[in-house]
Amino acid sequence: GESREGVIKPFGIFADDKGRLYVTDTADQSVHVFDPKDNNYFVIEGVNKKYKFSSPIDVATDKEGNIYVSDSVTRRVYVFNEKGKFIREIGADNTMQRPTGIAIDKASGTLYVVDTLDSKILVYGLDGKYIKSIGEYGGGNGQFNRPTFIALGRDGNFLYITDTMNVRVQIIDKNGKFIGKFGKRGTGTGDFANPRGIALDSEGHIYVTDTIFEAVQIFDKSGQLLLVFGRQGTKHGEFALPAGISISNDDKIYVADSYNMRVQVFRYLKTGKGIGKGEDGKSK
Fold first, then answer.
1. Could you read off the pLDDT of 81-93 as tens digits, one per residue?
2. Are strands 143-144 and 136-137 parallel, antiparallel or unpaired?
3. Which residues pair with 90 in a beta bridge?
4. Which stretches of the chain are DSSP H helices?
5. Spatial separation of the C-alpha atoms in residues 263 and 144, rounded to whole Å
6. Whole-number Å distance between alpha carbons of 190 and 192
7. Considering all CA atoms of the chain, what is the largest pairwise distance in Å, rounded to the nearest integer?
8. How many CA atoms does the CB half-sphere of 198 hold within 13 Å?
9. Which of 49, 76, 231, 253 has fewest C-beta within 10 Å?
10. What phi, psi does 156 have (nearest 5°)?
11. Three-state SS for 81?
12. CA 212 to chain centre
């Protein structure tokens, strides 16, 4: 891909095992790939010059380093190699209505796609073969109302989904069995207004961005609030419509700070003292 200056509206974000950072840009209709180890940066604009992204939402990689990008308008997940060359598309069978958040189970070679419009989770093999769907529209356990983002626990057993219009997080196992839920609509700490991005650190703490509260809330495995960081603003550690969030293996926390046109980076300190100081992520 070609290089350019900065991100306009970062939305989905993913930090892989190799230190690379992938950021979808819904305004620029592209995916930015940062590789600090090789001091490399490039942009993926779509399948080719004619067939470009319409609305790239989320991004993830498999164990080979192939890059998966969901596009909510073309209703596809596109797959590229680690250099950004198009390999294949998933969803040509019209199984997706509005694909948004994605997660990949590297061990089993499984792709999980949140279908926001259909209020369910779609399951595919990495070869693109449709396997099944999980959930349905509703407010009960294992039901969803406009879910957006999804995270896979580090042990690979559980899926964590921001069930946005039900204003909660749901936890299910890989077979779709309901495990637990937490959160409710409200203005108090630990409540949600519009939960979006979700990620887990190495100790299993659950991080959830909220685009209305403009903060990140951190919960333990049982859904008890541990910490909140961020507030509305443009300074370091402040947010304007935070969307996607991803946490690297070494517990660096990357937040797509959409309306501030940047990615912010934090570090989880395992000393019990909370979250490390934010750094402005506009290093490239």
1. 999 999 999 999 9
2. parallel
3. 77
4. none
5. 29
6. 7
7. 51
8. 30
9. 49
10. 80, 5
11. coil
12. 17
- Reduced to 3 states (helix: H, G, I; strand: E, B; else coil), residue 211 is coil
- List Cβ neighbours of 231 (8 Å cut-off, separation of 6 or more): 214, 215, 238, 239
User: Which amino acid is residue 48, in one-letter code?
Assistant: N
Contact yes or no for 41/32 (Cβ under 8 A): yes
| 92-117 residue pLDDT tens | 999 999 999 999 999 999 999 999 99
Note whether 15 and 247 are within 8 A (CB).
yes
252, two tokens: 């660096």
Q: How confident is the model over 48-74, as pLDDT tens digits?
A: 989 999 999 999 999 999 999 999 999
- 199 in Cβ contact with 253 (< 8 Å): yes
Q: What letter would DSSP give residue 277? A: P
HSE-CB for 248 with a 13 A CA cutoff: 16
Kindly write down the DSSP assignment for every residue of 149-199, as one continuous string. Answer: -EEE-TTSSEEEEEEGGGTEEEEEETT--EEEEE--BSSSTT-BSSEEEEE
Nearest to 268 by CA among 252, 255, 281, 254: 252
Nearest-angstrom CA–CA distance, 170 and 138: 13
Tokens standing for 146?
Answer: 């406009």
Name the 3-class secondary structure at 42: strand
Distance of alpha carbon 252 from alpha carbon 16, whole angstroms: 11
Task: Name the strands in the sheet holding 168-173, side by side, starting at the edge strand that comes first in the sequence.
Answer: 150-152, 158-163, 168-173, 178-182
Q: How far lies 87's CA from each of 36, 57, 208, in Å?
A: 24, 19, 32
